[in-house]
Design a protein that fits this description.
The chain has about 280 residues and is an all-alpha fold. It is about 70% helix and about 0% strand. The chain starts with a helix and ends in an 8-residue tail after the last helix.
């Protein structure tokens, strides 16, 4: 615990800011039912398009105002944080697992296995990420599970490339040669010797990739091919407020700021973890 505290004290201001925001985000998502002032789908037509409390005609009854159906924006923002975290973390884990396994196989065995995986990577890189995601979601249908699956299976390429490059270096080291000479099986060498040596890079890359996944989910949802409209997500909130951007700009501004702040904070945390792993990469605060 003392070592963790020392690391935190030596972290940059941006890292501390990112950690604070991410911790608050996680706590809000976990305790959403306790923190939300209203039900997620409570409709009050009388309070329709009520402005936030700091604007003219705003009130403390609805701190961040209401949407076109009279639903409390703060409540939907709180519940939307859950969806963003679930999509970002679960889809990131799916992509990490696929990418790490393929990267290990390509780097360790080489030959035709490496060629096949490398060609698949080239094909994936030939198309924009969001274009592939749009095609797959359109084919599978809009749902939370499908969005997570699509973002996971289209996001494994960076992990595979990174792990493959590291495995090519690690497998030539003496302790791997010693393991082979002792008769260790390929699976034991891969998962017991090589994987622990390269997994740190995948985890750091995965942390930084969560923000990208969350933005991708919001983009798909905004385009109408992501999570269904009846589910409160930040992407849905932005899309639903698009028709009122001039008359009720807070409907898009508030979830947009939350999305921006959350993704930037995640990137700050990812940069901090990378700096801890390799202090030579640490920038000047």
């Amino acid at each position: 615990m003392k070592k963790v505290w020392e690391i935190l004290k030596q972290s940059t201001r941006t890292a501390k800011f990112g950690l604070v925001v991410v911790v608050i985000w996680v706590l809000v998502a976990i305790f959403a039912p306790l923190l939300a002032p209203y039900g997620i789908n409570d409709i009050d037509v009388v309070q329709r398009l009520a402005p936030p409390c700091w604007m003219e005609n705003g009130s403390m009854e609805h701190l961040l105002g209401t949407d076109q159906l009279g639903r409390d924006v703060l409540t939907r923002l709180i519940y939307g944080s859950r969806i963003s975290l679930i999509v970002g973390i679960v889809a990131g884990i799916v992509g990490l697992i696929i990418g790490v396994i393929l990267g290990l196989l390509a780097g360790y065995f080489g030959g035709i296995i490496d060629s096949i995986i490398s060609r698949i990577i080239d094909v994936m890189l030939a198309f924009p990420f969001i274009f592939l995601a749009l095609l797959l979601v359109a084919a599978l249908g809009s749902s939370l599970a499908n969005v997570i699956l699509v973002l996971g299976i289209t996001g494994w390429v960076p992990y595979a490339r990174t792990i493959r490059a590291q495995v090519l270096s690690v497998k030539e080291k003496e302790f791997i040669k010693s393991a082979r000479s002792l008769g260790c099986s390929d699976s034991r060498i891969i998962f017991k010797q090589i994987l622990p040596s390269v997994i740190d890079s995948a985890i750091i890359l995965g942390t930084m990739d969560i923000g990208t996944i969350i933005l991708s989910e919001a983009s798909l949802t905004y385009l109408g091919l992501g999570i269904p409209p009846h589910i409160a997500t930040w992407g849905n909130m932005i899309a639903n407020g698009n028709d009122y951007i001039f008359s009720a700009g807070w409907l898009t501004m508030i979830p947009g700021i939350a999305l921006l702040l959350g993704c930037i904070s995640i990137n700050f945390v990812g940069d901090w973890l990378r700096d801890i792993r390799d202090p030579r990469l640490r920038g000047v605060d």
